[in-house]
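Input record (one chain):
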Amino acid sequence: MTNTKKDLGIFSLSLNVKDIEKSYAFYKKLGFKSIDGAIEQKWLVLKNGTTKIGLFQGMFPNNMITFNPNDARTVYKDLQSKEVNINFSSGLDSQEGPVSFSITDPDGNPILIDQH
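The corresponding structure, as predicted from the sequence alone:
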């Protein structure tokens, strides 16, 4: 098996928050600015320099590590070939467009691979 490096892209944390308005106010104090999402839809993506944090109220049961690769389909195939268990996937039935899937590390931490 060839050991090729797969680029996982931008790293961020997706946080399960109880009150998105309070959380957004807190992270604004740390210098974060909203770059995507809608507070009325209960989700925002925030950025400070190269650091990104997603705030999600009621969408995920736990905090998650998130990667945004340019080619999630290749990452998916590579992980399948290495027998990594895929928890869920979406968008893999087409050759282009958005793709997302999740895996779990050995300690139970959820990891989302999300190509926009």
